[in-house]
Amino acid sequence: MKKEQVIQLAxxxxxxxxxxxxxxxxxxxxxxxxxADGPIQKLMTVSIALIATWFALAFHELAHLLTGxxxxxxxxxxxxxxxxxxxxxxxxSIQVYFNTDMQLxxxxxxxxxxxxSTDLTQRFxxxxxxxxxxxxxxxxxxxxxxxxxxxxxSLTARYLACFFLISAVVSGALLLATTLPRRTGMFFxxxxxxxxxxxxxxxxxxxxxxxxxxAFFQAGKPFEEIDLALIELVREDPDYAVxxxxxxxxxxxxxxxxxxxxxxxxxxxxxxxNMPSAFRAEFWKEVCFAAAYLRQDAAAANEWWAKIExxxxxxxxxxxxxxxxxxxxxxxxxxxxxxxxxxxxGRLAQKAVWNGSEQLEFRLLGALAQ
Length: 370
Prior knowledge:
The termini are far apart. It is elongated and about 75 Å long. By secondary structure, the protein is of the alpha+beta class. It has 2 domains: 150 residues, no CATH class; 164 residues, Serine Threonine Protein Phosphatase 5, Tetratricopeptide repeat. Helix content is 68%, strand content 7%.
């Protein structure tokens, strides 16, 4: 185990022991105050505790989200527990959905830059810092509200105090979880990401390059114009290499360099197993397309499709229509493949101006419709 990991583990254990002891003492003090007389009160208290836990998660992610919107970034995703909001990949609308990905239950918010600017790193750093600061604010507000309600004898006041108390405790835990460790699963914690952005040196250069690539794609520019130097810089970071390969794959498809696209797809197929399934499907759909369309390998394409079918089977955006058409064609169902490709082309024909992604989909769908 590395020295950094030992320090983080020791710090986490010490913090956990401190807050556990403090919570136990607080529980003794408030034990008679929390409603627990009879099964109905106990059920209400448990329900309020669950709602307060969700509220603390949502508050943390909402701080990220609102700060991102205030910085001029574009909404992409918001998840807190079972509640999910996302930008629909097909019609660009905001869609409410039921989240079933356990790896996202702890919450995630994504707002992406759509224009490149010299202060992009500083703006994104504010978004990253907003989550822990939001949790810290809720700790103080929840503690203050709980304290003000302690003398109230009514049952409603006791339920409210329970809500604010648990919100504050969970927010405190979130504050620790997003600042003490370096990573949670595949993601950097807020503290680690913030210091990567503002630290300077090679790490900050990679973060700036990553933000520039994201802004390029969100701006809808033609994929042929992407700066390959930025992609190579981002690829040097093992944590971001998968994103660099995804950007490179789109570029190679747009320029018609199929051999390079196949090589990149092979790297995309070696994703870490701790990536949330919804994220993994976005990368693996291109691996599946490369097997079906670029390599004409039906067995490999079908194997990849089996891994992402649950996430993509109900989707009908252009990229997924293109993938489904390629799968049908490599499996010999040419008429149905042509129907899906023509459906995608018809959808594009309704638009007066195409962004970079749509220009690429037009060329690929056109080839599949022949």
